[in-house]
Amino acid sequence: MSIATGTVATGTAAAIYTSSGSTAITWATFTNYSGGANTLSVYVVPAADVAGGAQNEHLVLDSDPLNDTESFNLYAGGEKLLLDNGDAIFAISSVSGTAYVVSYTSI
Q: Which residues are within 8 A (CB) of 22 and not within 5 positions of it... i.e. 6 or more apart?
């Protein structure tokens, strides 16, 4: 397994993980360390599409409130999200200070 880590963008949804080949997301978590309240939105976007415009069709989490030091697990407990080459997970937070960790494996 491998991991991708970083900070969620503000203002515009940005890719936090893009599949190279076929992969399975085994775990994804988002943690607010901004010092205040925050909201988080997450999108799963097929390779042929882009996050933007009619992005509600890609929405899996809409403006979820995260208090300071609170975390949200998107995939855990044996669930998997299967992605083909070029499929991606995008995220956006209302303020800077949201970290992510995505665990994935090739399939």
A: 82, 83, 84, 85, 106, 107
